[in-house]
Amino acid sequence: MRIAITGEKGFIGIHLTNYFRNILKYEVIELGRDYLDELPKVKELDWLIHGAFIHRHPDLNVLLELNRKLTNDTIKCLTVNNLKCNIAFLSSLQEELDNPYGQAKKEAKKTLNQYCSFINKEFVSFKLPNIFGMYAVPNKTSFVATFCYNLHNELSINFNANKIKLASINDVVPIVANLQESEILHQETTVEEVYKLLQYFDEMKRNHKFPELNSKFEWNLYETYLSYTNYKI
């Protein structure tokens, strides 16, 4: 099977590429960051995993418009180059919220679904929660990555008691790679609770002790913490 991933150089994209290529043994076509320039060079494709999205902008209305344009440009690129393939869209739980980012995800999901229906191809979408794991970039990709990096480097950490829905990349990738509509299971917790767990892991490490881990979620969080031991920004 031939797969291409937009946003392949990002946190989730790196993990998906490794899983498709090394576990499922699929052929993964590398598109790079400028995927709209590379897609026309692809002659045949079974699935496009569409993860490229603009997550931040100081003007939220501009954020919405830029993502609308990105979605339309992606469909135009596929259409002009007669590249008819199934599409898996990496959406977000925020599509259920009333904010520009969530609205952009919701609109993109609807538009891509209509496009696939028109060309008689499959469309699946995954509502992703906050995701943590190895390769997430501190101060950019994941607050968990930021906390881990700061703990290892004895830097200050700002945290709050906001409720969050959190999942490990190790649990997310196999579900997405199955390419069938499915719920992404997550842990409901708070930023403060995550911080306290990571702080506990840090104390255990500095005392050369192994922490008590009470769930798979805690194991994944501990594994993530350890992955930032020698991380350099």
Topology, please?
Layout: E1 2-6, H1 11-23, E2 27-29, H2 35-38, E3 47-50, H3 60-80, E4 86-92, H4 100-118, E5 123-128, E6 130-132, H5 143-152, E7 163-168, H6 169-177, E8 187-190, H7 191-206, H8 216-227
Parallel strand pairs: 1-2, 1-3, 3-4, 4-5, 6-7
Antiparallel strand pairs: 7-8
Helix pairs in contact: 1-6, 3-4, 5-7, 5-8, 7-8
Structural class: alpha/beta
Strand proportion, as a percent range, falls in: 15-25%
Cα Rg: 19 Å
- What is the 3D shape? globular
Beta strands, count: 8
Major sheet: 5 strands, parallel
Helix content estimate: 40-55%
Low confidence ranges: none
- Work out the helix count: 8
What would you note in describing this structure?
Strands 2-1-3-4-5 form a 5-stranded parallel beta sheet, sandwiched between helices. The chain has a 3-stranded mixed beta sheet with strand order 6-7-8. It is α/β, with parallel strands linked by helices and 233 residues long. The protein has helices spanning 11-23, 35-38, 60-80, 100-118, 143-152, 169-177, 191-206, 216-227; strands at 2-6, 27-29, 47-50, 86-92, 123-128, 130-132, 163-168, 187-190. It is 45% helix and 16% strand. The mean pLDDT is 95. The chain starts with a strand and ends in a 6-residue tail after the last helix. The chain is built from 8 helices and 8 strands.
